[in-house]
Predict the structure.
Amino acid sequence: MLRRQAQAQPDIVAVVDGDRRWTYGELNRRADAHAAGFLALGLLPGDRVVVQFGNVAEFFGVVFGLFRAGLIPVYALAAHRLAEVAHLARRSGAAAYMAGDRYAGFDYRPLAQALRAEVPTLRHVVMAGDAGVFTPLDACMGEGGLPGDPDPSAVAFLQISGGSTGLPKLIPRTHDDYIYSFRASNGICGVTEKTVYLVALPVAHNFPMSSPGHMGTLYAGGRVVLAPAPSPEVAFPLIAREKVTLTGLVPPLALLWMQAAPGTGHDLSSLEVLQVGGAKFTPEAAKRVRPALGCQLQQVFGMAEGLVNYTRLDDPDDTVIGTQGRPISDDDEVLVVDDLGRPVPEGTPGHLLARGPYTIRAYHDDPSANARSFTADGFYRTGDIVRRLPGGYLEVQGRAGDHINRAGEKISAEEVEDHLIAHPGIFDAAMVSIPDPVLGERSCAFVIPRQAPLKASEVKMFMRQRGIAEFKVPDQVVFVDAFETTAAGKVSRKELRARLRTQFLASN
Ligand code: J2J
């Protein structure tokens, strides 16, 4: 897809990162050079490579270079820390780690150092910027000697799941399923060579990557503008300068933008469509998009595992405000079922199951997750509770599982509990979601201390020292003496979390 655009319009700008403007020709040359450079390091087609960049142009040179070399990117978010990156590297058996030296105030070099010590399969660390002891990205530039185009039905990369149980799972997406999803999304979202897409969310997240996101925009020959932060202070001047036509946000950011827009001196009139997704956007907030920002709202309900739903640009207002859209494709099969797996009537809430042309049938190398997450006939159990409305539109009601959707960042209660219980002063812990007016949900950890009294600040400090992403550090820590058990003395973590949450909400 990149070669085609580079031939058709080599001098058109593809990627804007601050003062840097890479044309399609330039991006294409870098992809070729990196592909040859990566293979010259001794990496072999099929090797997995953990890629961790912020919203910077290098991300594109690196991932297209990897695709061309037949290497398989594993997408880490810039916010991930050693615990998550080491997990992704181990799970994928990664041969290399590629990152930028610094981003958003964080230095990735010590992380890379620790990662190399922890993950024996890792043979190379490639760094953009000041590489220190590692291989500089600029040195990974070669010539010729590339394998032919990859098999379209082969795995192109491993995307990561929101992780509803334990650590993130790896999602194998193929070239053809993924390109299908953003090519079809382009049609639904009106993306053409005239589109200017602002990447406000993290570049490696599936929403800004493919719905239709930066990949859809590059496919169509449009322009991708990278925002180093999603705040109005950073994004609004970029919208005005680059005449951005389309962007996607999570609900809390949309609220922030709507609040900041009326007083802003920046011209936002180029913005045609604001997509909101990743977590539930309430109808009250949805109603305010056009008055505040002067553009059309599109709701997007998607998942890295596949299925993506959009409200359509010509839908009536009440559909756009009150639903999370309908699937991309007529070939997307959507089932809404009760706890026993029986289909429920239209309008009744139930578990959403999905199967279709771009929805995975299995996670990468994870038999136990696969047994839980897929039905025998290949439907993915999304874990979402939805209502199906006339016309196939879906309204998301919430989650069946115990993950916390904090401003679109998915946090697994189980994963955080494991870290909490590692504290020598903590006997047991259970983390739950609490409704939050800005974040949608925030995290609250219930902690039983062993003996000596603990402080919430100590617990949070400990969590940071464990090397986990900041968004997973509990927003609130509540100390309790014990978790009450049922008469049977047995209680599943799931029931326990549900009870704690109910008690907390009743007492606040
Ligand atoms: C309620 N919950 C939503 C919405 C996602 C496009 C858009 C989003 C994602 C994404 C994505 C929601 N209302 N509008 O990959 O391509 C929750 C659901 C879902 C989970 C998936 C895309 N949009 N969600 O958010 O893999 O619970 O993908 O199952 O990060 O986010 O999370 P993730």
Residues 24-40 form the longest helix (17 residues). Residues 162, 206-207, 210-211, 277-280, 299-304, 308, 324, 382, 384, 396, 399, 405, 408, 410 surround J2J (CB under 6 Å).
